[in-house]
Design a protein that fits this description.
Blueprint: H1 2-19, E1 26-31, E2 37-42, E3 55-56, E4 59-63, E5 65-68, E6 71-74, E7 85-89, E8 99-104, E9 112-117, E10 130-134, E11 139-144, E12 147-154, E13 160-166, E14 169-174, E15 177-183, E16 191-196, E17 202-208
Antiparallel strand pairs: 1-2, 3-17, 4-7, 5-6, 6-17, 7-16, 8-13, 8-17, 9-10, 9-16, 10-11, 11-12, 13-14, 14-15
C-alpha cells in the first residue's frame, strides 16, 4: 500500500512539473518513477513583432499645401498635375535605426504619394525613394525613385498604410499586413515625404516612430 502511494505521488509531481510553462533556457527538476532526479531544459521561442512608439509627423517645406489639425491637405492651384504640391517631415530616421511611418486614408478618389526619402529636393514624387501611391481609382501601387515597381491591391477609407524600415529592408503594409518588401541599397537617413496630384488630396493622421 505504501509503495503504491509513493508511486502515485511521483507520477503526480511529474504531471505538475511538466504542465508548468517555463521561460526560455530555464532548468526544471523532474522526478522519475525510479526516484532519481534529472535536469531538463525547456525552451520557449516566441516571434515578437517589433513595437514602436508612434508620434505625430511634423511637416515642413509645405508647397501649395497646408496642415489642418491632423491632416496635410493639397491646396495646389492646378488640379491633376504632379510636381507642385507636397511636404516633407522634420522627423528624421537615423541610418542605423529601424522605424515606421503610417497614414490613415480619408478619401479614395484623389491621388497622392506617401513614403521615405533621403532628402527633400522638390514637391514631385520622383525623389521619393520608397513610396506608396494611393491612386484616385482606389488602387495601391509601389513607386521607388519615380518608377512603378508593383501593382498591389485596392484600398478604402479608414485603411491604414505604412512603410517600415527594418534590418536593411523596406516593408510596405496595409492594416499592418505586409504586401511587398524590397532591399535597401544603402544606409542613409530618411524622412517622410509627400507628393500630391489632386486638389484637396490628404495625408491624414501621419505618424512616425522617430
Amino acid at each position: 500500500m505504501f509503495k503504491n502511494y509513493v508511486h502515485l505521488l511521483h507520477l503526480f509531481l511529474i504531471i505538475c512539473l511538466i504542465g508548468c510553462g517555463q521561460s526560455e533556457g530555464t532548468k526544471t527538476t523532474v522526478v522519475n518513477t525510479d526516484g532519481k532526479q534529472k535536469q531538463e531544459t525547456s525552451e520557449v521561442k516566441e516571434k515578437v513583432a517589433p513595437k514602436y512608439n508612434l508620434g505625430k509627423i511634423n511637416w515642413k517645406h509645405l508647397a501649395q499645401s497646408e496642415v489642418n489639425e491632423e491632416t496635410l491637405v493639397s491646396k495646389q492651384l492646378d488640379d491633376a498635375v504632379w510636381g507642385y504640391a507636397g511636404a516633407c517631415s522634420t522627423n528624421i530616421l537615423n541610418a542605423n535605426e529601424n522605424g515606421i511611418i503610417q497614414t490613415t486614408i480619408l478619401e479614395n478618389n484623389k491621388s497622392r504619394m506617401f513614403g521615405f526619402s533621403e532628402r527633400d529636393i522638390n514637391p514631385g514624387y520622383g525623389k521619393i525613394n520608397h513610396a506608396i501611391y494611393l491612386s484616385r481609382k482606389g488602387k495601391i501601387l509601389i513607386f521607388e525613385n519615380g518608377r512603378k515597381v508593383k501593382d498591389c491591391c485596392n484600398y478604402k477609407k479608414s485603411d491604414v498604410v505604412s512603410i517600415e524600415k527594418k534590418n536593411g529592408e523596406i516593408i510596405y503594409k496595409k492594416n499592418n499586413n505586409a504586401f511587398y518588401k524590397t532591399k535597401l541599397k544603402k544606409k542613409s537617413k530618411l524622412i517622410a515625404d509627400v507628393a500630391f496630384f489632386n486638389q484637396g488630396a490628404t495625408i491624414d493622421k501621419a505618424m512616425a516612430s522617430f
